Amino acid sequence: MRVISKKPRRPPQSPRLQVNEALAALLNKHHPGEQLPTEPQLAQQLGVSRATLREAMRSFEERGLLVRRHGVGTFVAQPPPVIESGLEELESLDTLARRIGLETSMGEALIEEREATSDEADHLQISPGDPVLAVARVMLTDAQPVAYLVDVIPTTWLRLQDLGEAFNGSVLDMFLQRGEPALSHSRTDIVAEAADGMLARKLRLRRGDVLLKLEAQLVALDGRVVDYSLSYFVPGHFRFHVVRRVGKNNGESTLAKV
Amino acid sequence: MRVISKKPRRPPQSPRLQVNEALAALLNKHHPGEQLPTEPQLAQQLGVSRATLREAMRSFEERGLLVRRHGVGTFVAQPPPVIESGLEELESLDTLARRIGLETSMGEALIEEREATSDEADHLQISPGDPVLAVARVMLTDAQPVAYLVDVIPTTWLRLQDLGEAFNGSVLDMFLQRGEPALSHSRTDIVAEAADGMLARKLRLRRGDVLLKLEAQLVALDGRVVDYSLSYFVPGHFRFHVVRRVGKNNGESTLAKV
DNA sequence: CAGTGGTCTAGACCACACG
DNA sequence: GTGTGGTCTAGACCACTGA
């Protein structure tokens, strides 16, 4: 037990990362449905406490990679198809892609300061004509377009000159790294939409082809809207899911009548 | 520390429930934005370990009632203007429609017992050919089709004869009312899809028209899959959203074998 | 019944935020 | 530096599952 106040500390890395890696390796070695070693066994093998192991397992379970059954055991879940993301955690597409080892690059991009349209002002809780920074880009994998992303940010939050060399295209990542303003959550509408001429051209599809559209408002801890974004996804590359929990109570509009 | 193997045990209730109640009371006493006592303080006040307190706090934070900021403190979240509302709460479309005052009726319906297809068996964690109950129906508002819904349930959970007069078409509502099996959550994939011939006919669209598709596995508390459902929505009638929270994300590879 | 995951404790140390 | 939440440990007991 580590009780002494000296600081020998870790040669390899943090227990958490180590456990995450080991778990990922385990999952790759086992087939879906197979049972994993018991928690005490695994904890000892990995040289961490059971609490630490369970914390890591929790995140795997949330991502749908693991199934734990009380009194029975822990099992490998179904293999996730394609690129998959649980929507409840806010994460940039770039971060997601990197995390799963996907090569992406930024295609045709446009960054400009202009005046907010009426619709944008509405979602950003500002006035039409107020200055905003607009960032539009195409995301590519293997030189093939997979998504078209637009961010609109009031210039009170972000100016053109704030985008340094390190800017990778993700406004969300930039805000998270900068830490200012502190972010709370995003409210994301989910829509299926047909590609119009502009989208068809940018994504190399035909007009009328089906797209998944995420329309999001990024909200700071103080409640103000920081970013209004539209994301269009070509089917077959990304796959999103959400975990819907049986309600304890507080029901309200999950959907609005249009 | 409780080390002795005697069983004095608790007079009131489980620490978890006690802490949940105390936290809820605390939140009602404080205004949004106010800072709560530190974790060690709270833990001592409530007479539980810090780990137990943190476990309870985690669920409050997930529900958006609390905000914890590393190195700063714990705060009461902003007034939830119905934040806790999107897809994250599991509720039947019928219940939702009724609550928002939308008149719906069940059109063209088909209920039958048959053998599970390979794809269905996969999602239900059973074997192909195992008997299932399939419930397919069209949802109408104003005599106009707005959604096509299919539920597939292993007959171990539900038989044709279990559907009484009161069955309104919603398998979820039926399970919730029956209380058996106890439900946990659903894992819902979100996809944009073009209507095929069958869907086009049932929803009175043209082939190739865009649809939002929700593909869900309904999971019981014991982890078993109770229901596999496909829901196709005609755009313009329903609008779904989800609240995505900024991640405390963990470290590494979610990578999956193919 | 044996074996599994679920909860809980007391205490220590780590990492971050902010004056 | 001071104070906060975040991680981690070793061990014990609880509650469920299934033979």
What is the CATH top level name of the largest domain in chain A?
A: Alpha Beta
Instruction: Specify the overall morphology of chain A.
Output: elongated
Structural class of chain A: alpha+beta
How are the strands of the biggest sheet of chain A laid out side by side? 5-6-7-10-9-8
- CATH homologous superfamily assignment of the largest domain in chain A: Chorismate lyase-like
Straight-line N-to-C gap of chain A = 61 Å
What's the average pLDDT of chain A?
82
Give the uncertain stretches of chain A in residue-range form.
1-11, 248-258
Number of helices of chain A: 7
The amount of beta strand of chain A, in percent, is 25-35%
- Proper CATH architecture of the largest domain in chain A: 3-Layer(aba) Sandwich
What does the oligomeric state look like here? Answer: homodimer
Number of domains of chain A: 2
CATH topology call of the largest domain in chain A: Chorismate lyase
Largest sheet of chain A: 6 strands, antiparallel
Find the biggest chain interface: A-B, 75 and 69 residues
Helix percent band of chain A: 25-40%
Q: Over the alpha carbons, how many angstroms does the gyration radius of chain A reach?
A: 22 Å
Report the strand count of chain A. Answer: 11
H-E order of chain A:
HHHEEEEHEHEEHEHEEE
